[in-house]
What does this fold into?
Amino acid sequence: MHKRVVWTFCLMGLFLLSAAAPAWAQGDQGKSPVFIYVAQWAVPRAQWADMTKLDDSNKAQMDKLLADGTILSYGNFSILVHQEGAPTHGSWFSASSMGGLMKALEAIYAGGNVTTPVQAASKHWDYILTSRDYNGHSGTFKGAYLSGASWKVKPGHEQEFWQMARAYVVPMYEKLLAEGAIHWYSIDSEAIHTESPNMVEFVTVAADTAGLDKVRAALNEMLQKNPTLGAAFETTVKDETHRDFLGWVREMKHK
It folds into this structure.
């Protein structure tokens, strides 16, 4: 497949999280950092309905944490492109500080739902991400699409990468947000490193299937207007590290 097409598809993509981003990752630019805790499970197919019930049982506690300002957002999702042994379901919540994120996590642990049978039967992964490039709509949203694409930025090319991301990708996301095609976007790196410190993830939450198509169309338009951009981006990342992600958001809330 032509590299430009690959890049267009990949940028369509989540979410989905130390106390600040690495100095190289997001520099001094961007907004105040937001921190995101992402939990994922590989749930046996026979227990998918149990996972939905668990999300419902957590709702009151998450609403309380949102209302009292401990967290800024939360949501749950299911994976649409499955791989053997990989996650099938996930959830996230965000806060304006690492302390707020841990306060929410302590409350969740104290609630007792982390030891339910469906979770005990499922492989599990946690991530803590952070972002300085993000924005989203306030409100409650259901049936949205969470998509993400990640790369490892080449050492020595971090400044170029962030310059391009902020000059081209962020304005595109802001336009899609204003049009209602997406409810959220962020460019994330890990705050607690379980992957390479140079990994960066582009994340969007499209409002619906039409929103997914609008994101793709916007990326194509951006590349057509800037024909050298795809090649310039490729010089800053390691292609073999690229991964995509697509999920269906059952429900999310954002202040």
Notes: Residues 135 and 174 are 8 Å apart (CA to CA). The first strand starts at residue 34 and ends at 42.
